[in-house]
Amino acid sequence: xxxxxxxxxxxxxxxxxxxxxxxxxxxxxxxxxxxxxxxxxxxxxxxxxxxxxxxxxxxxxxxxxxxxxxxxxxxxxxxxxxxxxxxxxxxxxxxxxxxxxxxxxxxxxxxxxxxxxxxxxxxxxxxxxxxxxxxxxxxxxxxxxxxxxxxxxxxxxxxxxxxxxxxxxxxxxxxxxxxxxxxxxxxxxxxxxxxxxxxxxxxxxxxxxxxxxxxxxxxxxxxxxxxxxxxxxxxxxxxxxxxxxxxxxxxxxxxxxxxxxxxxxxxxxxxxxxxxxxxxxxxxxxxxxxxxxxxxxxxxxxxxxxxxxxxxxxxxxxxx
Length: 320
What we know:
Elements: E1 2-4, H1 11-26, E2 32-35, E3 53-54, H2 59-68, E4 71-75, H3 86-92, E5 97-102, E6 113-116, H4 123-135, H5 142-155, H6 166-177, H7 182-190, H8 195-208, E7 210-212, E8 217-222, H9 224-229, E9 252-258, E10 263-269, H10 275-282, E11 286-287, E12 291-296, H11 300-316
Parallel strand pairs: 1-2, 1-4, 2-3, 4-5, 5-6, 8-9
Antiparallel strand pairs: 7-8, 9-10, 10-12, 11-12
Helix pairs in contact: 1-4, 1-5, 4-5, 5-6, 5-7
């Protein structure tokens, strides 16, 4: 069996994959976890993360595992396009059963089995519910609890988003009951950045944050040259897009991160502002109602101009 997650894997992608892999191995299955590229350095401490195969650095190992798989689990993404070049390998295995476990809107691929719940706060929560349903909550180990807690915590903004439910907190109680060190987990994820990341954040907020529509919409942009200036590492810009939403009247925030062949667009919003719709309409992307992303294949200047025009169009329709 192979477990896959998306490009630029985050805490939920990695946490749900490791927890589900352990559950399947304990049931007697051979399992390989694969991600397209490296996860952020502040997740290096997670138990079991060293066993995750990174396609970019071990392409032959990843290709062999995918080709031999009888079942391919797709966790925390809803389209093979989220896997970049790894998606072609998945498409080439036409005999393996594909199982989706995900909480993003509108899955765009054909899966043999789908656990698709956009109302869920994280894929780690969905994995917990599957483990609970199949093996019982008492089967959850401290290792599984630790990595699922990371996924639930990071995908809810440290339990601050609107997808919080009583059942999520019941699940968290089970995880806490295994004896995991919750303050240490929080410290490992949120207080383990580099000096370069701290200085990049200050630069982005002070020099690069622009306001639109009387301060209700904000955006930031970072070029490759700017990120190199601050010794950028994968994951350093994580969370930057959320910060403008701390401004009281802010309704929508965006950040544009330059890569070699494209610009990654991240979008966040409050309340009724649907950035999933915005991402799909203007940046070939999607995600959730209040958190989405996409890509732009033109210059940074053209991308920003497109965003500004899109915001005005959105506003004319009463959507922001």
